[in-house]
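A sample copied in:

***
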Amino acid sequence: MQTQRSTSRRASRRLAGFTLEEVVISMGIALGSILAVMSGYKVSMYRTEWSLNATAAQALATQRLEQTRAARWEPNASSPVDELTAGNFPTVMRTLDVPVVGTNVPQGQLVTTITTVSSDPPMKWVQVDCIWSIGPRGPFTNTVTALRSADL
């Protein structure tokens, strides 16, 4: 009977708790899972910030393109008017329209390029680049273009 009792005690001890190896492995799996969630969160936040700034830069570039579309250009008028020149649209820095916390205000540099494509019929190519960065990352460029004919 003594043999059965010691065997059943050993068996119950083996089934009673975790071994050191099991605890270490489970802690390693838990740590790996926590690190994966944290790095996923970091990547998600970066992509969200990038997307927000890219959308704001695109809006700035589109706004400048609309300003060039509003400029008068009448080469065939009795007194020709040409407000669609690069001198009227200099390179400027503008604040991106994004929510800001603290002093990290994102800026975009607007560069407008106007090229004459043809004089008959009168046509100009307008390109607006918005160059921006997110802290040390960048620069990134959003570009909009349009082919414009003269006002009638």
Observations:
- The chain has a mean pLDDT of 88.
